[in-house]
Amino acid sequence: MISLIQTSFQDHFGSTPLISFAPGRINLIGEHTDYQEGFVFPAAVRQGIWIAIQKNGLPVCRLFSLDFDQEFTFELKAFSPKKGHWATYVMGMVAQLQQAGYQPEGFDMVIGGDIPVGSGLSSSAALSVAIGTGLSGLFGFGLPKKNIALYAQKSEHLYAGLKCGIMDPYASAFGAEGKALLLDCRSNDHEEIPVDLGDYSLVLVNSKVKHSLADTAYNKRREACEESVRILAEEFPGITTLRDIAVSDLEKVKSLLPTALFPKAKHLITECERVHLAAAALKSGKLDEFGRLLKASHLSLSHDYEVSCPELDFLAEKSWEMDAVLGSRMMGGGFGGCTINLVRTNSLASFEEEIATLYRKEYGIDPDFIPVAISSGASVIA
Ligand code: GAF
Predict the structure, then answer these.
(1) Which residue has its alpha carbon closest to ligand 1 atom 1?
(2) Which residues, other chains included, contact 345 with Cβ-Cβ below 8 Å and sequence gap of 6+?
(3) Per-residue confidence (pLDDT) for residue 213, from 0 to 100
(4) Which residue numbers mark the site Transition state stabilizer (predicted)?
(5) Distance, C-alpha 339 to centroid of its chain
(6) What is the ipTM of this complex?
(7) Which atom of ligand 1 is nearest to 165's Cα?
């Protein structure tokens, strides 16, 4: 990919660029908890987004996307990011930098990547983090990774309309080879935990579906949590998010919340606990326990939080029935994308064959299988 992007840059702009890379992410467990300042357990993967960038001495930015085979130009002094266009992610990061007092000059940029479309590996966060890393490197801004992650999150809020948490850009920025990040989304600090899976491997199954209204449903879930906090704050003084409530208080929470809100709050509260239990299980090599928690997370996301879909439920349920699988669950925002599966390494081929046959028969779709290699976070690489 590096040589492809370098060659493309030279063909389009005729100079030698700086190259930055930012990876996609998986999430072991801790779904829909980040926007309630909860705990998540993501890791960066090998696949990601590469940016080639160089100053052009002009008042404009000239972009080329390898994926879309498209050019786009905008003026640094007057631009308006539009939802749904790939160049919006570039303009969004430039706008964030300008607001923070940094002044990028005109630049040329080529963007390329190898994150499977719609897989839920968070290509948009990787794109924003790669852009932030590239701009920082090119103009010598020396931006801390945390700032890049926060600008990426804000850009997604403002220009893509998704009121996401910090997990995706954080994992892309801070990822570490062979390690997952136990991230506290209140302090925005993390502990690196080695992912040693012995005879097991992680593999993603891409359902290849993405149901519409996913973004609307995402924002609604977030609002439901905020509404619960407003109601609960009278009886739990001092709480600011659902992360502040213990599992032992669930009965009290149930008595205070309307029927429609309680299951959503329950997911948040129990999922934060599962993250800690899963991190402890991984540290002590208790993979059975880790797998059990993946299943519990899926059931909670599907039944209580209602962000799964029939295809993801089918993939997870069929996986739970297999001897070679210790755990399986939907991963990411939901309504499509991937499941993450902990599968005995010497049974990976039969797992994939069996799942593909079952899924094809039920939905007429050939799922994709994506092996997981936990890798380093964003950097300037050339
Ligand atoms: C999406 C969001 F972008 C994340 O912030 C997170 O909430 C995730 O869904 C669900 O855990 O990837």
Answers:
(1) 333
(2) 199, 200, 201
(3) 65
(4) 25
(5) 13
(6) 0.99
(7) 5
Under a CB-based contact definition with an 8 Å cutoff, are residues 17 and 41 in contact? Answer: no
- C-alpha 182 – ligand 1 centre gap (Å): 15
**Alpha helix ranges (H) inside 145-213:** 145-155, 167-174
pLDDT per 10-residue tile (average), the chain, 382 residues: 93 95 98 98 98 97 96 94 90 96 97 89 96 98 98 94 95 98 98 98 96 82 97 96 98 98 98 98 98 98 97 98 98 96 98 98 97 98 88
Distance 271 CA to ligand 1 centre (A): 14
Distance, CA 167 to ligand 1 centroid (Å)?
Answer: 7
Give the SS3 label for residue 27: strand
Token representation of residue 49: 């987004």
Contact 185, 33 (CB under 8 A): yes
- Looking at residue 325, its pLDDT comes to 98
Residue identifier of the C-alpha nearest atom 3 of ligand 1 = 164
Q: Provide the annotated active-site residues.
A: 168
Sketch out the chain's domains with CATH numbers: 2-195+376-380 (3.30.230.10), 200-372 (3.30.70.890)
Q: Report pTM.
A: 0.96
3-state secondary structure of 281: helix
Task: Report yes or no: 116 and 48 within 8 Å, Cβ to Cβ.
Answer: no
Q: Residue 41: how many CA atoms within 13 Å on its side-chain side?
A: 25
Residue 65 assigned ligand-binding role: yes
Minimum-distance ligand 1 atom for the alpha carbon of 34: 7
